[in-house]
Amino acid sequence: MQVPLYQAKAEFFRMLGHPVRIRVLELLQSGPVAVRDLLSEIEIEPSSLSQQLAVLRRSGIVVSIREGSTVSYALAGGDVAELLRAARRILTELIAGQNELLAELQHLEPPVPAPPLP
User: pTM for the whole thing?
Assistant: First the structure.
């Protein structure tokens, strides 16, 4: 039985729904990165990073590259980098909208008087 497209998309976004995985993908946007460098940037336990990299690798979003004893990871395609850029644009717009609303609320609300001193 074929999985509906909306369900496949939901599973894809669930797979992305971990801060470490997002950070790894951000770091890989500029090219392959060695695991030791990922560890120094993300500052988590090696076993935790390994688990998150395995999720990304199983999903096909990243690939591992072995050169001697060094293992690096890279994005499997450029679409993931574009998705991260789109997410940044969307978040920027949302936050800007919230800031505009906050400014409007602060402008419209009369200041709360300070309580009298005893």
Answer: 0.78
